[in-house]
Amino acid sequence: RATMKSLRFISAEAFVSNAEFARKSLGSVAHNLFPLLFKASYLLEQGEVIHDLVKNWPLVDFNMGKLLGTTMDYQEDLSHRTCSVCLESCLTGLRDYVLNHHPYVKRLKVVDLTGIKDVEVQSCECKKTMGRWARTQLLSKLCLELLVYLKQCNPGTFEISIDVLIDLFVTERNYDLVVQALLKKCCCPLKICCVAFRSDNLALQKFFYIIKLTDPSLLRKLEIVHNVRLEMEHLEILFNSICFPLLMSLTLPARTFNVRRFTATDERMLTNIGEKLGEMTQLTELSISFSILTGRIQKLLSPLKTPLKMLDVSNCSLNHADMAYLANSFHANHLEALDLSGHNILDLYPSTFTKLLSCSSSVLRSLTLEDCNIQDTHVNMLVLGLSPCHKLQEFKFLGNPLSSQALKHLFTFLCELPMLKNVEFPVPRDCYPVGITYPIDDASLCRFDHQKYESVAKDLNLILLQANREDMKASTPLFGSYDAAVQETNNELGAYLIKSFKETLEKFTTSLTK
Member of which family (predicted)? Predict the structure, then answer.
């Protein structure tokens, strides 16, 4: 559906569509029209015009989220367009703003790049994206280039000071560059201000060094994922040595906690970590997937003084005591997003699960129950649990052994949830060979009757259509939901995994030889 444009926006498009004319005429454009022209240029991917608009930006702040978001003149939100042409033009324009020798007073104080959203499908024509990692890389590079130039040519430019708010994404490959940019922040007119920090494929020592450079007192989101070997004792050191007073969201890597090898010292350590989390009064999102926390969820979460809005405890080997704590805790009434994947919930603790959903039903927007061994016999119970969840917008239940018939029954019910927009459902059990075991390993995941699946998917979409629910999207992403950060760095991560596998094989061979 085409979004309505105001006459002003149509005029702005016409103005910027002739790049040469627009660039020559910017000097006579009223300052309050710059935001309008920026959004029109972004929509039309007019990189040169974007560059010159930023280079001559006349206002005090430059907020990408607001500039590209819904506006009166054009309501479509363009903040999910991570168009490489537009973003590179924007950042080089920012560098050239500092170097611009025009006589006007430079007013720009804050640039906010945090409103950019990375999504799977790009609607920009060039189809080339600049993800979070690449934005981190380019901004760091431009800051260092700026410093070299200024030292040689124009020391007076140091009087300019612009805070650049950004979500940093650091891996082994861009680590040195980002460290240099952060170390020289005080000398650079563009001050990198890290609002969110994601670290992947990075040695622990390097992570500890760079996190201190980011100014943790301003950090709102911290993601330590995949190939960062952070264990519980390292996490305790991190929390004991650094304060995160504004932290709202924390993601920890797999196996940060493992209660199966706990000693009395480990129990004290877990208690201390819980207390440190309790000191983070802004913390409302916690992801601790693939940690083994059997019987310890209360110890970790009860010290929190602010209720959690998002909790990911997928594959944490939770037991009945953990589930009972969650259902009865003060977090339950505030959970907007919950991931309980990897737990046999409807077999082992159905009533506790139903109570948890009932408590969170007034706010719950996203529920993920992947690989939970939900079978046909559980569907009525699942429907009962989901019935009060009228705010639910997203429901993911991939990897469960449900038949085509059970899925049709479930979909008929899902149509009644008024806010539900996105459903991720499993390949029906009867599309796989007889005797398939769950959870299905990656090698067998694609070995199903594709023709039969297409037929079932068609029937499910027909159920949505007949219920006038064309607004609902149902899909089966076999290998899980799209992750922009993983997608952007998958080559580096793949190389790291091959290297790790090779090292393990070499150690094994050496041991055998000995």
Answer: Belongs to the PRAME family. LRRC14 subfamily.
Q: What is the pLDDT of residues 214-244, one digit of tens each?
A: 999 999 999 999 889 999 999 999 999 999 9
Tell me which DSSP letter residue 397 carries: -
Whether residue 50 is contained in a domain is answered as yes
Contact 158, 204 (CB under 8 A): no
The pair phi, psi for residue 192, each rounded to 5°, is -70, 120
Report yes or no on 52 lying in a domain.
Answer: yes
Nearest-angstrom CA–CA distance, 507 and 495: 18
Confirm whether 514 is domain-assigned. no
Give me the DSSP letters along 206-226.
HHHHHHHHT-GGG--EEEE-S
Q: Where are the beta strands (DSSP E) in 438-493?
A: 473-475
CA 49 – CA 53 distance, rounded (Å): 6
Kindly report, residue by residue over 122-159, the tens digit of the pLDDT: 777 777 889 999 999 999 999 999 998 888 876 655 67
Q: How far is CA 227 from the centre of its chain?
A: 17
- What dihedral angle (degrees, nearest 10) is formed by the CA atoms of 202, 205, 208, 211? -40
- The answer as to whether 17 is a domain residue is yes
Domain of residue 42, residue span: 7-130
DSSP-derived 3-state class of residue 21: helix
* Tokens 């708010």 found at: 165
